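Below is a complete specimen:
___
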Amino acid sequence: MENQSPAPQKKDADYVFYELTRSICPQCRRPIDAQVILRDNKVYMRKRCPDCGPFEALVYGDAQIYTTQGKYNKPGTIPLEFGTEIREGCPHDCGLCPDHQQHACLGIIEVNSTCNMDCPLCFSEASPGFNLTMEEVESMLDDFVRTEGTPEVVQFSGGEPTIHPQIIDFVKAAKARGIPYVMINTNGKRIAKDDAFLEQLAEVQPSIYFQFDGFDSETYRIIRGEPNILEEKIRALDRLAEIGLRVVLVPAIERGVNDHELGKIIDFAVKHRAVSGINFQPAFHAGRHIAHDPMQRMTIPDILKMIEEQTSGTFTVQDFVPVPCCFPTCNSVTYAFVDGDQVTPLTRIVNVYDYLDYITNRVMPDWSAEVKLALEGLWSSSSVPGSQKSAAQFALSCQACGIPESFTIGDIADRMIMIMLQDFMDPWTFNQKNLMKCCKEFLLPGNKQIPFCSYNTVGYREQARAQLEALEPERRLAKAEGRSFEVKPVEFSFNGNGNGNGNGKRELKVLIR
């Protein structure tokens, strides 16, 4: 009898299929299905475009954490009004549309496109183009109030917003509408040099969202194109401390560039009297960015492990809890009380995980309900570190934690620090499920609020930029003639099913009413 070859054996895949979602092609930007898969305890997105082929990217560096964080997914809060109707479906109806599952915790207004830097890493692709008028900014603020009732936070960004001639007036306009926390997103250059501007900031007291990527000249050469700007940044921070402004440092973390500087940044933040928080942002590759491998991108778990190593356990991975108002894997945050050299994360004192568990449905006494509300306020994208409100929430959250009774809310505000990690999606990692829970929105004329990750990846930014730039001659003419500028709404239109036009970008129609 002849030898028979063994029967073929079935084999298991080397990954676990976790879920199916919708994404976009990173080249032509058409919406396509995407698989989220788990492999080697990491999370990847795999997708195929009919025109551009297959793609795969790393989404999250720890599959175990990724799969257990669903219980921190807080029910969404519905805005008072929506800005658009459901027509083409997500992600092409942003505005917000009624399918969106969260209100705007943070509204962002890009007041200009011009910048006094030319960073190799810039999601807004800053360059000369437009400067918004007071009429446009006031219309966006009014829309924000109409949809939110009582908005918590608005951030003025750009470009570089501090070089806009009316930036101080914009801050005043926001505060006049009852928005308690007004941020300016800045690289600090003008603050470091302009005494008159510093006096104006001292008068209006905004919070400062401050670009700060580390300490090495090579870090700044690669990320900002200017290797010798650290001294200028330190000078700006010292000057902000002198006028009592609170600062959140915002380091963009790129693998192999500045990931070795996390501990040093935290140590600096804890000691500097102006700094009340850090928002580490893994570099996301939208707009203008450095060449990268989407399979090696930096993710939140990678940064958390490095923080634990580089702070020698002052902060551990377990100290960081997802932010429940957006999708839990998008953010992670902790707060700590600083008393001299002693740094105590709030999570060592209060079981934050239990209070923010939205699936278990525990029965708690009334005081625990109050603690839960306070923690929800801290673990929200609208929380402003160092503010009186966040300090009060911190004090209530750890009412049994041993903070001296003599401490006032102001004392706590001065001694607490927030460390947040915010991972934005780019065209390689774009997940429609996450997008629908986004609570950080770009505000635009015409009652439009566009979620951060769709604005920067799907094609909204390109359309808005073209329309806002086209209006610049009209703005200048209105100013020359001494009359008010007539606000034009920004409109969006996507070409059919999103087929590419051969250059890696969606073909976008520009509409101006």
Q: What stands out?
A: Residues 361-367, 497-513 have pLDDT under 50 and may be disordered. The first strand starts at residue 16 and ends at 24. The CA atoms of residues 11 and 480 lie 74 Å apart.
